[in-house]
Amino acid sequence: MRDSFTLYAQEIKQAVDMRRALEHYGIAVNSAGYALCPFHDENTASLKVYNKSFYCFGCGKGGDVIRFVRDLFGISFREAVEKLNADFTLGLPIGQRLTVRQARDMKPRQAQRLRTRSDEAEQKAQRFSEYLDLLQEEDHLRFVMEMCSPLEGEETPPAEWVNASRRLGYVGYLLDHFYLQENAESIAGKADNAA
Ligand SMILES: [Zn+2]
Fold first, then answer.
1. Ligand 1 centre and the CA of 39: distance in Å?
2. Where are the domains of the chain?
3. Most buried by CB count within 10 Å: which residue of 48, 104, 113, 126?
């Protein structure tokens, strides 16, 4: 059951764009891709909305659409997955006991999807857009750190700087991870071709 749940979470993240989720829950996103952060009090929009993630430059909160719903409604991971499934009528059979047959079909079905050419292209495009998102966010975080860098003699750096620096570490990790994964895939692809 745990595996199918992770699978559902993945499907939800693919299906529901961050912006769509925000707007669905009544949070307007401006033309620059910013929204008023629901997690802290503010008058100027500092929550940046990316395709598949968000990050608030004011309070440092960030994550994917499931994290957003969890924090917005104060609910668990499981509840957030169920809520998104219901609110966006995705029709995933969450919470229903899988029949042996359904459970058995789950993995091959996924594998088959991966094998289909068009889906493969779609996945690549998806991954590429996530990658661009991360690059964009990294750029932004660097900019924020520059703008908010501690003044000379200042003992504690501004909170914005600390938050951005933390998030930058994580984004850097994700980008490295992406790079390694792409590399592993292309190496595996070459080995496949050679065989
Ligand atoms: Zn915030």
1. 5
2. 1-115, 117-190
3. 48
Nearest-angstrom CA–CA distance, 46 and 163:
13
42 Cα to the center of ligand 1, angstroms? 8
Please give the distance, rounded to the nearest whole angstrom, from the Cα atom of residue 103 to the centre of ligand 1. Answer: 40
107, containing H or E segment: helix 100-115
CA of 37 to the centre of ligand 1 (A): 5
pLDDT tens series, the chain, 195 aa:
445 677 788 889 989 999 999 999 999 999 999 999 999 999 999 999 999 999 999 999 999 999 999 999 999 988 999 999 999 998 887 766 656 665 555 555 555 555 565 666 777 777 777 888 888 888 888 888 888 888 877 788 888 888 888 889 888 888 887 766 666 666 566 665 555
b/e per residue, 146-181, with b = 16+ CB within 10 A?
eebeeeeeeeeebebbebbbebbeebeebeeebeee
- How many Å apart are CA 78 and CA 66, to the nearest integer? 9
Q: How many residues are present in the chain? A: 195
- For 110, the enclosing helix (H) or strand (E) is helix 100-115
* Distance between CA atoms of residues 68 and 70, nearest Å: 5
CATH architecture of 1-115: Alpha-Beta Complex (3.90)
Ligand 1: centre distance to CA 185 (Å): 37
